[in-house]
UniProtKB/TrEMBL annotation, chain A:
Keyword field: Membrane, Transmembrane, Transmembrane helix
Protein's UniProt name: Anti-sigma factor
Record field: compositional bias (Low complexity): 176-187
Source species, domain of life: Bacteria
Regions that span the bilayer: 113-133
Region (Disordered): 83-108, 142-192
UniProtKB/TrEMBL annotation, chain B:
Any coiled-coil regions, as ranges: none
Family designation: Belongs to the sigma-70 factor family. ECF subfamily.
Species classification: Bacteria, Bacillati, Actinomycetota, Actinomycetes, Micromonosporales
RNA polymerase sigma-70 region domain segment(s): 27-93
Descriptive protein name: RNA polymerase sigma factor SigM
Length: 299, 230
């Protein structure tokens, strides 16, 4: 039975009839008449009804498929680890070099200084909002401020104090009381718009393009939502949750592509190691979660 | 021992909304195997299924307040997971990828039939899985819910957000395609590969299945919402 022998028979219609999808519709008596009067339809009916019933029986015999332990553990960790809170501070967008905030009331409350920067990604036509990232709480108030940001044209992020890679630091949300946290870090991820089309094989490779590298407008437009600081923050939140290993320290955020699709590629470290994580444009939405396209450990 | 083991799904969801940090995890623990099976068999790739389930459940975790109680909590969870799977499949269709060296990957098909659990008739089971994997995503999702997992048609319709008649149609057309495929592979008429006789439903958690013949037909809603694929 391949269907070829049922010439002149509408297989889908016949399947609907056999499966009960035509009951009570005008098509039901029509098909019944065809089966009664047309030998081809009758033969198809007899053959297909038996085959469909057998298929249903076979499908019902599939063995149970429990969630693998490692998937369950990762899920459990993700659901029981509080989401790290990120604060992204958009720059004014004037292209000025990063400006270090002066001491503010916020800082007096123990929050780290933040850096802001714009990044042009397409010959001045499209620009991603530069940002600094900071967790609202859990900061080490005594730690030196770090910055890593870039204006268009800058090839490297500034790391004035420690030489550490730019990073996002994650910590469990706390109150604004300014309590210090030993695991808190402060930094800003390197922002890229490399336009690289990553694959699973190349995802772990370090980004090769500088901050100001232009990206095609078509690609940039795909990130309209994620160019917003709020949604990018939500995306990073969801990646941290999906990773399931607590706070993440992001080194770079690359507005790029993965296997031909627009993707934001985040390189970060967490308790479970260093990762390169590709997420789609739905990352951070209510339905998309982290919109994970791929993730690979970085050795 | 889970201290919340006696709580209903709705109780756990309420507790989660009230700030109980463990309630949602308990809820997920309760249903994760079925959610996983549905995701894996719909999307056909373990890694993608894991990502889809995790993304979906994290979204549910964050957006639990949006659950209106119109359906059972488990139906809501299934809906989110299945939609996440179908979204991923659609994205694959929208952005076809370069075939992997093994050439298995197609746009809306699983990259390969999901690895089969050991079965008495492995070849037959593998053929059925391959035929299932070759179906269009919507038909596959309906068949996974109804024929594989054993959900009633009405619940599958709620999960997929379509009319019951649509589920019947998708299941029927999917079964027909599979029967033709399997019959063609075997060179016989109407008899897909069949393993040794044993009780069906090893993976089914609900008793009702879609009727496969006119004698078992159920009344449909008003004409027009029953079939979507003609």
């Amino acid at each position: 039975m391949t269907g070829a022998e049922f010439r002149g028979v509408d297989i889908d219609l016949l399947a609907d009839y056999i499966g009960g999808a035509l009951t009570g519709t005008p098509d039901e008596p029509v098909v019944a008449t065809l089966i009664a009067d047309d030998p081809a339809w009758r033969a198809a009916y007899e053959s297909l009804s038996g085959g469909m019933a057998a298929v249903a029986t076979e499908l019902g015999r599939f063995e149970p498929e429990p969630m693998p332990a490692e998937v369950a553990a990762r899920l459990e960790a993700a659901l029981t680890t509080p989401a790290p809170r990120l604060t992204l501070v958009p720059d004014s967008g004037d292209g000025a070099p990063p400006v270090r905030e002066e001491k503010t009331t916020r800082r007096e409350r123990g929050r780290r200084l933040r850096w802001v920067t714009p990044i042009a990604i397409a010959a001045g036509a499209v620009a991603f909002v530069g940002f600094g990232l900071d967790y609202l709480s859990g900061r080490d108030g005594n730690s030196a401020d770090k910055s890593a940001s870039s204006a268009a044209g800058e090839a490297q992020a500034r790391r004035p104090d420690s030489g550490q890679a730019p990073a996002i630091a994650g910590a469990e949300p706390k109150s604004d009381s300014g309590q210090d946290s030993a695991q808190s870090q402060s930094a800003t991820p390197q922002l890229l718009s490399s336009g690289t089309d990553y694959t699973r094989a190349t995802l772990a490779q370090a980004p090769t393009q500088a901050l100001s590298a232009p990206a095609p407008l078509a690609t940039a437009s795909k990130f309209g939502r994620l160019s917003s600081t709020d949604t990018l923050r939500q995306c990073l939140d969801m990646i941290a949750l999906a990773n399931g290993a607590g706070p993440i320290t992001a080194e770079s955020v690359d507005y790029a592509r993965f296997e031909g699709k627009p993707a934001i590629v985040v390189r970060f470290t967490a308790d479970n190691g260093a990762w390169a994580w590709a997420s789609g444009p739905s990352c951070g939405t209510s339905s998309g979660g982290a919109d994970t396209l791929a993730k690979v450990p970085v050795r | 021992m889970d201290p919340q083991g006696g709580a209903s799904d709705a109780d756990l969801l309420r507790a989660h909304l009230d700030g109980d940090a463990q309630a949602f995890a308990v809820l997920v623990r309760r249903h994760r195997d079925r959610l996983w099976a549905v995701a894996l068999r719909t999307i056909g790739d373990r890694e993608e299924a894991a990502d889809a389930v995790q993304d979906a459940l994290l979204s549910a975790h964050r957006n639990a307040a949006r659950f209106r109680g119109d359906s059972a909590v488990t139906t809501w969870l299934h809906r989110i997971v299945v939609n996440a799977c179908l979204d991923r499949i659609r994205r694959r269709q929208a952005h076809p990828t370069v075939p992997l060296p093994d050439g298995n990957r197609t746009d809306d098909r699983p990259s390969a039939p999901e690895p089969a659990a050991p079965a008495p008739d492995h070849d037959a089971a593998l053929m059925v899985r391959q035929a299932l994997a070759a179906l269009p995503a919507e038909q596959r999702a309906a068949i996974v819910l109804v024929d594989v997992q054993g959900y009633p048609v009405a619940e599958a319709a709620e999960i997929l957000g379509v009319a019951e008649g649509t589920i019947k149609s998708r299941c029927a057309r999917g079964r027909a395609r599979m029967a033709l495929t399997l019959g063609g592979l075997r060179g016989d008429a109407g008899d897909p590969p069949s393993g040794p006789a044993h009780a069906p439903g090893g993976n089914q958690q609900a008793a009702q299945t879609v009727p496969s013949g006119p004698a078992a037909e159920q009344p449909l809603p008003a004409s027009g919402d029953g079939r979507d694929e003609r």
